[in-house]
Protein: Murein L,D-transpeptidase
Amino acid sequence: MRSDRIHVALCKSLRILSFFLCAGVLSVCQAAAAEPPSTPKSEGLMVNIRPKVEQELLGKGFALGQPIFVRIFKLPGVLEVWMNRGRGFELFKSYRICNYSGFPGPKISEGDWQAPEGFYSVAAEQMNPKSGYHLAFDIGYPNAFDTAKNRTGGLIMVHGNCQSVGCFAMTNGRMEEIYLLANESLKQGQERFDVHIFPFALTPRNLNKFAVSPWIKFWRSLEPVYTAFENSKRVPDVTVQNGEYIVGSSARKLAMQHVFAEDR
Structure:
């Protein structure tokens, strides 16, 4: 009887060990699957730009591979890269956008030559080292909000070559830096990085300035996310419910505090 009990206990232990081994193998496979794609060309470009970027990062107290967050402002035409070294996001660098299509306002349909606005994210598989525009990543348009509004189109990129048909185009040198920062953050375990696109800084002053725009209601729906990040330097949780952006309760609280402060 005692030997039977030992046998049963041993079998249970082996089953538990097998479970964790399988889970470990699965997680390793998933991690490998999340590796950003690469080509000899993209690897060469990143090797060449890496010393320059690492020197700039070191000078500002950052390190390559730390999580990133991207904000784009159509006016004045700037792409910001923020990085998190454990105390919330801090601005690493602002890059001038070489070219983008359209005007302030969202993308509505395929072929309208308009760059989108809203909240997007980029995972490893959206990195495109084979782009015909030097290097690129797909921002993830259309998102759930765009789909709910029946907005069409796709393959909206941040890319090089300084030419745009609905995308955000950078010079090749700037794109190499941005691509390296994104690539390394994903390789180091950031599941995806957020990309928030605004027409301009959504301050009360700017919203009042553009109050007669047909897009003012849409822009006001983006404002709580802009304000929450400005206050906390943490990317707020944003979901889509009934075709509208919904911001996490903590972000709404921060946004309201900011509004009350502005009113005083």
The helical segments are 2-33, 40-59, 144-148, 172-187, 204-209, 216-232, 249-263. Confidence is low (pLDDT under 50) at residues 1-33, 251-264.
